[in-house]
Amino acid sequence: MTQQSESATSTKPQGAGDPAAPTAPGRPAVLPPSPPSPPLAEPRPLGERRVWPRSFMDRLTAPLPGVRAFARLAREGAPRPSAEGLADIPLLPFEPGPLPGVDARTVAVSWAGHASWVIRIGGLTVLTDPVWSRRIVGTPARITPVGVAWSALPRIDAVVISHNHYDHLDAPTLRRLPGDTPVFVPAGLGRWFRRRRFTRVTELDWWEAAQLGGVRFDFVPAHHWSKRTLTDTCRSLWGGWVITEPEGRRVYFAGDTGYGHWFTRIGQRHPGIDLALLPIGAYDPRWWLSDVHCDPEEAVQAAVDLRARRMAPMHWGTFVLSAEPVLEPLRRVRAAWERAGLARENLWDLAVGGSRVLD
Length: 359
Prior knowledge:
Helix content is about 15%, strand content about 15%. The protein is α/β, with parallel strands linked by helices. The strands form 2 sheets. A 7-stranded mixed β-sheet has the order 6-5-4-3-2-1-13. Helix 5 runs parallel beside helix 7 (about 295-305). The longest helix has 12 residues, at about 330-340. It is globular and about 50 Å long.
């Protein structure tokens, strides 16, 4: 495993003791000029077999919930919206349409729902955290249909996975893909794919990269964790992806993350992010979820920290994972964007099934 050049366990609040830092989450600010970006790592070989540590607990940026937190959760019950909060399900935006026509110089994104995107970039079609199943372990069935029919997908050239939670790593969906589909996954997760007969699996550590067809895939940190069974807590890494096409246009897929210092550092290493796909849902109650899920105001602040030109919200309106009303994330992210004084056309608040093309 490579040595990390930055502390993975820093819990310094954004802005603490740093006059150049943005304001607190919920009150985005324009950032000062960016310092020179650190050099990017040379791409690693595709499909490289590597030895990883047994645990990535040292990468946590907040402690995992303890006995008291679980006792409180047991007393209060699993966080779910009230009946009133669920009443707006019929109003959730769902507008499936055909995928945009593209060529090798087009960058386009289509939101299938939750954290699943169809990204057309550099002549490749890339899926992020593909979940086409109606139901995942531990949650009710999805409250909006999949926005892009599986039959409507072109050949999939690559898949990127952020971490191993069931709403991001869906075995039934992945079984639909040919075994020779290139997959880019966090360190420690390759064995899961190879057991399922995927033959082109590339595992990366934070700040590492690989390249496919001229498109660069950089794995970057996130404020989250991993767990899929009772015995594999933090046995694989978690993170997001910066995908860069040959002409330099960049799409950042955050995966699943809380708010924190990594956003500024990602923006410094990858200047000129054209579009940030950022999570805005599954945030209530904050005492339980603030360390691992952004709320809408924090997501807008993250876009500012990243210096991203545009933001597309995700991770809401698909599965009921927490207690906020189902339409609240959209309302709050729009309000936060307006309060920040950011151009409305740069908030790509797509309906499930919606698409946009980068100019």
